[in-house]
Amino acid sequence: MAFYNGASVVALLLLVSTAARAAGDGLLLNGNFEYQPSKSQMNGTRVMAENAIPYWKITGFVEYISSGQKQGDMLLTVPEGAHAVRLGNEASIEQQISVTRGMYYSITFSAARTCAQSEKLNVSVAPGPESGELPIQTVYTSSGWDSYAWAFKAKRGLVSLIIHNHGEDDDPACGPLIDSVAIKTLYPPQATQNNMLRNGDFEEGPYMFPNAAWGVMVPPISEDDHSPLPGWMVMSDTKAVKCVDSAHFVVPHGARAVELVSGLETALMQEVRTVPGRSYRLEFSVGDAGDGCVGSMQVKGYAGQGSTTVTYSSQGTGGHTRASLEFAAVADTTRVVFVSSTYITKWDGTLCGPVVDDASLACVSQQQPPARRLLRL
After folding, report:
1. 270 and 240 in one domain?
2. DSSP characters over 162-226
3. Domain shared by 309 and 354, yes or no
4. Which tens digit of pLDDT belongs to each residue from 44-76?
5. Quick check: is 376 in a domain?
6. Are residues 170 and 211 in the same domain?
7. Which distant-in-sequence residues (6+ apart) come within 8 Å of 72 by Cβ?
8. pTM above the 0.70 mark?
9. CATH at 291
10. pLDDT by residue (tens digit) across 296-336?
11. Domain housing 55
């Protein structure tokens, strides 16, 4: 029988800690940054050694922040747990993840601004060309923290997730706070004969933190194959849509829906193969998420050259109405688009809007073939 002293146990734990995390739904290893760096590797709040934060590699000006810490007159808070990291100029955090080649994954993390500037974050996986720039200058919650999603297709079995702040502020420490980094395997649904829309019920989407009652923001994404909301693209310059779940919101159908929180600045879009001349019917639900969003809501649905406007009077307590649109396809590909034509804010000043859910598209008639002409000899 072998016996191990305390030093051996510590060495074994350190060896295990260098292994890559096998991807599964949930937080990355030390994804909430509760495992702290050693004080000998810190200079005040700044982390000095690249491997000081367990399971993470850092570059640039990175700070380890405790909830309640002050920055000038600002009191820094942490959404979950007691710690987070702050990315200053040209700072990044990186972790290796074991994934399945060819599979799709969504990354969810929480972020908060700490400086009066248009902060952006670059999220990428290496090796591979996949990266995305996430604008975080708009704050969608009263706490100042928002959760964001980004997706990628694994090109190899071992990848490095990198979250980078390219900031160029005069204050090198100026930058966003990052907390609660999680991953989820995506299984993009396919179109069916009954519903030509992929993921029309929005059930497949990013990881949502069980204790987070603010939903997950999906920022602009123009490639549906790499969307954390499979099948759908978010068309905007800087604004996002919000994924909401039935655990924290009122959802018209199933467990998830999408809240259009940015008015005319953001559209939800999907391209569908159609046959010119055939008639199709688009159906969808419009309502409110039961999150205190009160007012007259309007959602415009577009398909081909057809459109419909759905008005819903929200009391902020939940409810929905069903809408439909029939149209004739004029091309081999038809865009289905949902956009909110109203801007609504809640009592605390945060953006909100109508919920869209349970969207379906089906062919209702086929183009008749031309009549045969009889030739007389």
Report:
1. yes
2. EEEE----SSTT---EEEEEEEEEE-PPPP-SS--STTTT--S-----TT-TT-EEE--B--GGG
3. yes
4. 999 999 999 999 999 999 999 998 887 766 777
5. no
6. no
7. none
8. yes
9. 2.60.120.260
10. 999 999 999 999 999 999 999 999 999 999 999 999 999 99
11. 6-186
